[in-house]
Amino acid sequence: PFLLVCMLSVSCAEDTYYEDVSAQELQSARSSKEIVDSINVATKFDVPEITLFANNSTSHQSAAAFGRYLFLMTKARSNIYMYDLEERNILCSQKLESAIGTTYYGTDLYHCNQSSFGVNYFDDEDTFPLLYVSQRAGTDMRCITEVFRVAPMLSLDSVYKGINVELVQVIHFPPMTLDNSMGNVNCVIDQERELLYTYSRNNQKEDTNYGICKISCFHIPDIRQTDVYLEDSDLIESFMIDCSALNLQGGCIKDGILYVGQGYSSVGYIYLNVISLTERRLITRVDLFGKGIRWEPEGAFWYNGSLYISSNDRNIWEISFDSEATAIRDPKI
User: In this predicted structure, what is the pLDDT of residue 209?
Assistant: First the structure.
């Protein structure tokens, strides 16, 4: 068994902790750097074949795909690009009004760190479902996700010539606390089970769970509500994953598995985390940096039976797992 990597261009309301990790263990004094450095990547994922296919995509901050079409969002949602995965080229783009805002700790609020298509449509005649784009937390300590209606425009000769993008909802997640770890929330839709998941960390560095990834699950809010304020009582479930949550990037869900990119070259690591949502555990971490990927893994999505990672160097990587590899057990940590 091996990992094949090719490159294309371009019930419970209460908090539930991971069963195998006690609260005392979660509070043990391990820095996030130590957690990252201790990873021993599983052997079956460790010998990929890497092929450069092309390089003509665009720099972006997050990405989400629906069918053959990939949508690339830039920082501050200043631009959105529509990319054809079958033809491997950009069809059109749309310049948006840049969003300006500041987080409670002084950085840009509208980072567009993660994008995910949902299951609901704003209008029955829409071609694409709603697009969920994760931002940071404002002064109220609530991370937000903006929900967009995306409607590409066809010319008379049936060529996409632009994209109408309309903000239709803002989801405000519970204010971050040391208990709920709702800091730097990234939202991802489980399209098969029609649930909204988040992967996040606590931004308060003095707390030891700063480096522990937390998974939380909510019902997808009704699109008829323009502003949605979620509270801890709205949680369906939440649990800790015993791995670093620093520098989390784009993610997607398929068959109950969450795939999340992490890191960038200047911190010395780039991983693909493979997490079982049903078993509430880290299956493995793929060392993408060791395989030659040197840029941030901004987006993750499935297309034609393969997982793809879009990185900030304008490349899109295809990652193919065989059936045995996807069932591999935990690496030693």
Answer: 59
In the sheet with 160-172, reading across from the earlier edge strand, the strands are 114-117, 131-137, 143-154, 160-172, 227-229
Please, which residues have CB within 8 angstroms of residue 34's CB and are 6 or more apart in sequence? none
C-beta separation of 241 from 18 below 8 A: yes
Q: How confident is the model at residue 18 (pLDDT cuts 50, 70, 90)?
A: very low
Query: For residues 170 and 227, what is the distance between their CA atoms, to the nearest angstrom?
Result: 5
Alpha-carbon gap, residue 196 to 191, rounded angstroms: 9
Give the chain's radius of gyration (CA, Å). Answer: 19
CB < 8 Å & 24+ apart, contacts of 97-106: 100/76, 101/138, 102/138, 103/136, 103/137, 103/138, 104/137, 104/138, 104/139, 104/140, 104/141, 105/203
- Beta bridge mates, 297: 311
Distance (Å, whole) CA 57 – CA 222 = 34
Contact 195, 187 (CB under 8 A): no
Q: Which one, of 96, 66, 56, lies nearest residue 80 by Cα?
A: 96
Pick the more confident residue, 240 or 325.
240
End-to-end CA distance of the chain: 22
| Angle at alpha carbon of residue 85, lines to 192 and 111, rounded to 5° | 70
> Kind and range of the H or E element at 65?
strand 62-66
Do residues 219 and 231 touch, judged by C-beta distance below 8 A? no
d(CA 327, CA 207): 33
CA distance 225 to 69: 28
Using CB atoms within 10 Å of the CB of residue 173, give its burial: 0 to 12 exposed, 13 to 18 middle, 19+ buried.
Answer: buried
Type of residue at 68: R
**Does the predicted TM-score (pTM) go above 0.85?**
no
pLDDT at position 121, please? 97
